[in-house]
Amino acid sequence: MSTLLQEIRNSWMASHIIDAQFPTQESQQGLDIYQQTLRLRKTPTAITMITSNEDELLRIYAVDCHPLMIRYAITFASQWKSDSHEHNAMVEYLTQLIINNDTPCHCYVGFYQGKPAACGMLTYAEQSALISDVCISESQQATELHQAMKQHLINIAMNQPIDTLWYEES
User: What is the band of 27 on the pLDDT scale with cuts at 50, 70, 90?
Assistant: First the structure.
């Protein structure tokens, strides 16, 4: 089932460029970079679905408008800060993502001290969900922020009619 969820996520992520009438060269390069990183990821593992109280380290928002998508893109692309070309391509690519209620993938961005600091994605299919793309921008509290984002996504998934929850470590 985790493979199906990954395929759904990967197809959705690619569709915003592949199906675009006039995709930019940078957004196409960003998609290529994203797809290359997928090959480096570990196999998703099923995780125990236990809700817990979230600490208030992060203020987390569902990405439901373009300004939040821009913040999601900047946070996710922070993984490529050492290479400005790849960083810019990832920002260009990710800002092309279109979010609506009918999509299988839902993006989230977390703010720490008023600045975007964490992001993650939930993908749903057939009574299962996949937590993926959890990323933290540079921070001395990276471990705590990562755990806070992951726990928030677990809590969201637990409120859905799912049987299995998977986690793909980036």
Answer: very high
CA distance linking residue 96 with residue 18, whole number of Å: 11
Phi, psi of 74 (to 5 degrees): -65, -40
Per-residue model confidence (pLDDT) at position 56? 77
123: closest CA among 165, 75, 71?
A: 165
Task: Report how far residue 39's alpha carbon sits from residue 143's, in angstroms, rounded to the nearest whole number.
Answer: 23
Residue 33 CB contacts under 8 Å (≥ 6 apart), including other chains: 80, 86, 89, 90, 93
Burial 98-135 (b: 16+ CB within 10 A, else e): ebeeeeebbbbbbebeeebbbbbbbbbbeebbbbbbbb
Write the pLDDT tens digit of every residue in 39-86.
Answer: 888 889 998 766 666 667 899 999 999 999 999 999 999 999 889 999
The secondary structure of 30-82, three-state, reads HHHHHHHHHCCCCCCEECCCCCCCCCCCCEEEECCCHHHHHHHHHHHHHHHCC
d(CA 76, CA 74): 6
